[in-house]
Amino acid sequence: MDPAGGCPHADNARLLAENAVAEVVLPGDVRGMAVLGHEALKEFLAHPDVAKDAEHFTALREGGIPDGWPLRTFATVRGMTTADADDHRRLRSLVSKAFSARRVEALRPRVEALTAELLDDLAAAAAAGDGIADLRTHFALPLPMRVICELLGVDEVHQDRLHHLSNRVVSTSIGPEEAVAANREMAEVLAAVTAGRAERPGDDLTSALIAAREEDGDRLDPQELIGTLILMVIAGHETTLNLITNAVRALCAHRDQLDLVRSGKADWPDVVEETLRWDSPVSYFPFRYPTRDLTLDGTRIPKGTPVLAGYSAAGRDLAAYGPDATLFRVTRQARNLSLGHGAHYCLGAPLARMEATIALDRLFTRFPALDLAVPEAELPRHASFVGNSVGRLPVRLTG
After folding, report:
1. Whose CA is closest to 200, among 189, 190, 210, 212?
2. CATH class of the domain at 9-396
3. Distance from the Cα of residue 35 to its chain's centroid
């Protein structure tokens, strides 16, 4: 795996042409595997003999993974994404109320108000920049970041720092010392947040999690609380940030598909679903571990192997989506796996979909001639093979 990331689609196509499961070498010469095919990935994500708890990660358990390994946080952070069975159900039940359909719908007016405010900021940035502004910085990032932080009760003063640290935590290209420092600082920032919420509880998820811990000490220990917040901050904004960014890139490159939405032949939720499939915001997500030797699509995956979920590859699998799988078609109406499958399906999926739908609708309504200000090939890629997007998105708002 290239620690610097890059566009995954050419490599995905090459690997899928050979098999739905591939052997990979992770940073630090750690041997692993990746599940790439749609049906194979769907089976793997819901398989009863596949675990998330790092106690099943053989190399880690045997001392073969250093503390500064860039991907170590994905394996060892305490929270829903690294818990199984009863522990997973316990942690998920504590958080799920914040992402119920009713609670998400109640957030709609706030998301709409933030979107309008950020579009004003985007216009101001473009006016100050000869008509060009970075849409990722001024719009696609602050919208989900502010929503998830308000949901968690994180004060605005922490938000820029948490985004920077999130980028460091999910990066696959930084060194051991940087990785350790980023994880430590993120935990420290969120410990300060929890201390503040403990002193001044509010109508937010962090306060609710603290209350649950105090009412029943067995329900959430301090490490699980911080680990849950780390995961919520990262997953709560990075995925939606990439989703909005990738959708804008796709529509600018496929004006005919944008015209279908404007003519009423497709709608904005269709755009969101096709973007999730065609250019998944997450490329390869770490980790799952077979609890016994598995054979998947004819390939043996040894017990205890760290396995990546290849969402970007599965989205363009010809076997699942037909010979036009590599084409961006907003009328496709095909299911995708980009927000997970099975017990660990993304709790925030309804919120991410709502945010992206509102953002794209309002963006292209206000700026119908919006287009990329530089060729797609010149956009710098996200420095990770976990996240799948570009590092900035300069756009021109008017033709």
Report:
1. 210
2. mainly alpha
3. 18
